[in-house]
Queue: 2 jobs
Job 1
Amino acid sequence: KNEVEQSPQNLTAQEGEFITINCSYSVGISALHWLQQHPGGGIVSLFMLSSGKKKHGRLIATINIQEKHSSLHITASHPRDSAVYICAVWNNNDMRFGAGTRLTVKP
Amino acid sequence: KAGVTQTPRYLIKTRGQQVTLSCSPISGHRSVSWYQQTPGQGLQFLFEYFSETQRNKGNFPGRFSGRQFSNSRSEMNVSTLELGDSALYLCASSLNPRDTQYFGPGTRLTVL
């Protein structure tokens, strides 16, 4: 079992829909990151969380340390949100990554 | 401010050769991390450097090494290349360790 599990693996949505991507981890962490990777490989760090909730524009990230679970929400989704979203956790001495969620938003 | 730059962007090598990849962090950033991304394994952590010291290393063989210079620029080296080393190698910089990371565009290495 991977130490960082994401669901779903693939997600197709219509423009305007509310989207949720989930991340569960089984190790102790100091911080959790949500990353966005567009075709071509470029990665952008969306959020870094160690507790609670953060919001940036249409994106919201939450983390529940006790349940070892984080969610990334996208409100009013848009085709430009189409990308792979990756959850990553800092565990003591290294960073562990989820396999990613491929999101496609159709106009 | 200029972003994280990586050189070269593309590289083709043959088995047994060695390769050096370079990463220039955002000005003022002192921490640099390296990652390998492959279709099969996804993203994996290679190294983390801060103030010229390797803080952490991922689960990779000794053929993978790196260093950081006094100007925070970093290099990673892979010796005796294997076909399985073909990957996108990403560098990310941050002000300090465990701060928000800014990723470079990556170096795509192909080993033939």
Note: The CA atoms of residues 16 and 76 of chain A lie 4 Å apart.
Job 2
Amino acid sequence: GIQVEQSPPDLILQEGANSTLRCNFSDSVNNLQWFHQNPWGQLINLFYIPSGTKQNGRLSATTVATERYSLLYISSSQTTDSGVYFCAVWDSNTGNQFYFGTGTSLTVIP
Amino acid sequence: KAGVTQTPRYLIKTRGQQVTLSCSPISGHRSVSWYQQTPGQGLQFLFEYFSETQRNKGNFPGRFSGRQFSNSRSEMNVSTLELGDSALYLCASSRLTSRFNEQFFGPGTRLTVL
């Protein structure tokens, strides 16, 4: 199946700092989503972004499908941004399931 | 619009028992997918149901099964539980097949096998 790599695996930021999370995937995709998993385990939708650029408040994302990567930008980080960020992709070749990356664990300290 | 709901939220079972988890999708959504999350293996796809038919299946043994009802609600069953089945089980719904549509996740069922 498709390989999904996220970097960095861990990130510690001071409140107010900006950050960029990266998701690389090894093959073409039909679907790409970014999620934030809160401490209780719930996956919160951030972006549905198989291609292009989207913004939602302090968060924005860009997917360059032809180069097989996606970026999640977090600006002016807050302590509530802490948690694990996952990207998930649907492989357009095998087309039988979603594959999740291993996540980026973000800690924002006040 | 109500989100995806899962019941029960927590469950403790012993080895050899079986368990049934339930998922109610967002109203109007016809696809339900199930995932297992463990510290060692991360988030792994179990299966997807669309219009009461299993559309896709991940690499899990036959002890893991599911079904979808005509109202799109889904159940997942694990028979002959093993210690390694302890995990957070998440379900997700999408309007149509998850291949081309945004998925929305429920809060999960945390299963502990003793």
Note: The interface with chain B takes residues 30-31, 33, 35, 40-45, 48, 86, 88, 90, 95-100, 102-103 of chain A (CB under 8 Å).
